[in-house]
Amino acid sequence: MIETILVATDGSDDASAAEQTAMGLASRLGARLSAVSVLDDRLVRSPSNDGLALPPFPEADLNAYHRARAEAVARRFADRARGEGIEATCDVLQGAPDDRIVDKIQEADLLLIGRTGTLSGNRGSLIGATVDSILRKTNKPTILVPSGAPLTGPLVLGFDGSPGSRIAAKLAVTLANGLNEAVHVFVDSKDKGRAVARFDEVRQLVGGLSVPVRETSSTLGRPDVKMVDTAREARASLIVMGAYGRNRITDYFLGSNAASVARMSPVSVLLAR
Fold first, then answer.
1. What is the pTM of this model?
2. Could you tell me the CA-to-CA distances from 121 to 36, 40, 70, 230, 231 in Å, in that order?
3. Element (H, E) at 234
4. 10-residue mean pLDDT series, the chain (273 residues)
5. Topology agreement, domain 4-48+61-145 and domain 155-272
6. Which strands, in side-by-side order, build the sheet including 238-242?
7. Which of 45, 103, 206, 244 has its CA 20 to 30 A from that of 158?
């Protein structure tokens, strides 16, 4: 059961999309909503002058500037939530963003974070260093939200028989029933017999669904591409999948499929573990 939702916000476009998605989920699931805006310690250190004869910028002024910005982001979120009729809190914390967010998520059941943005640590990457670090450190289900992600629509459950995909199936049941959205189950296997066995297993796991279930399988092509294609064709709002595949030893950040889906998906992706 999802009772408390946390969203990380930094004022970026993707963070704004994460806020909107979090507010929609909180409203439809009847969950409590909170947000965290982190004042990154790295931003308040006086920058190097790179050999130039320039006076250092006072760290106190840097701290005040970035704290004011973080507090403005927090106020904007609270005002935005109230405008949607949702009571929400927002904490402003200071430190390493990944560590502060991971600490804060211990108080919640679900984390939402923009796929890119200031918190990503690298605007040129579809999944930046900070998001990468959060995903490695937390054991909580996390939704990565890209800018422009749809707010409503069916769920796509990616199932490969791994422990993470079994957890994903249970989360999909909770979300689909709470949101009253259909579920498309995607199974990829080069072996038809194995695909049938996985469908049998997933049917048992999603037996508590009160919404329509549709099944899709693929034996050709890349499973990550096929899963994203399934989400597009279904006009889905969320892909739900395990963060790691069947061979976690080779999956350092995420399972290869999970990482690829999270990077390329035009819809939000929930990574379960």
1. 0.86
2. 16, 10, 16, 30, 28
3. helix 223-234
4. 92 90 94 91 59 55 79 87 88 91 95 76 56 88 93 93 92 94 87 83 87 80 89 95 63 65 93 91
5. yes
6. 88-95, 32-40, 4-8, 110-114, 142-145, 268-272, 238-242, 155-159, 183-188, 213-218
7. 103
Question: What percentage of the chain's residues is helix, strand, coil (to nearest 5)?
Answer: 45, 20, 35
Based on its alpha-carbon atoms, the radius of gyration of the chain, rounded to whole angstroms, reads: 20
Check: CB of residue 265 under 8 Å from CB of residue 239: yes
Give the pair of three-digit tokens for residue 122: 């690298």
- Give one word for 95, left, alpha or beta, with left for phi > 0 and alpha for psi -120 to 50: left
CA dihedral 258, 262, 264, 267 (to 10 degrees): 120
CA angle at 144 for the pair 29 and 94, rounded to the nearest 5°: 95
The pLDDT value recorded for residue 59 is 63
pLDDT value of residue 255: 55
Domain 155-272 of CATH type 3.40.50.620: yes
Q: Residue 215 has which token pair?
A: 């099944």
CATH class of 4-48+61-145: alpha beta
Domain ranges of the chain: 4-48+61-145, 155-272
